[in-house]
């Protein structure tokens, strides 16, 4: 797999690519016994969307209008959907080498692909009876998803969630921007990257202000889009110094 993929060419190589590959092993010994839910852990949102292509079908979970448009005009709809769906340019190996330790995976069978490329046992956490029978499963990891298209609104949402207290275990604060279908259809030439990259300075500033730990306003996993752009991973890892 290629270490970095970018159709638009707007993504440069991460300045510290590879420097964080073993950051957990390099933690200060005073942090070795700190529970994972009290550490700052970098994550990637929709980790494997770098695999998407114009041949990728539109998910059945998308709004009906989008699915109808895809059925009628796939050659027009799918390129637009791709530009607004691809959230990462680094492959999984490169993300791990960059220091990401939380992967947001969506497992599905690719039409026309090998019938059994990988073996997974899939279980929905919404099936409470099935989950109750499997005591070895971790509980679901809560995610603070703002569903906002502007960084200021996203940050306000995250601050409101913090004011209500953090969950007891692992949880994710998502710094990923999300646009409405109306805006996507109104701006087919734009992309999620064009929305996200100008917002990175504001989002990075918010990240650097956070603090891990058990306190009610503390953060844990912080996940973002295009983790190879800017200093996101390094900023999250650096928060652990505040525990010393």
TrEMBL record:
Gene Ontology molecular function: any one? phosphoric diester hydrolase activity
Q: Name the Gene3D superfamilies on file.
A: Phosphatidylinositol (PI) phosphodiesterase (3.20.20.190)
What are the GO BP annotations of this UniProt entry? lipid metabolic process
Specify the superkingdom. Eukaryota
Q: Which InterPro entries match?
A: PI-PLC_domain, PLC-like_Pdiesterase_TIM-brl
Q: PANTHER family, per this entry?
A: PI-PLC X DOMAIN-CONTAINING PROTEIN 1, PTHR13593
Designated name of the protein: PI-PLC X domain-containing protein 1
Please report the organism this UniProt entry assigns to the protein: Octodon degus (Degu)
Q: Which gene encodes it?
A: Plcxd1
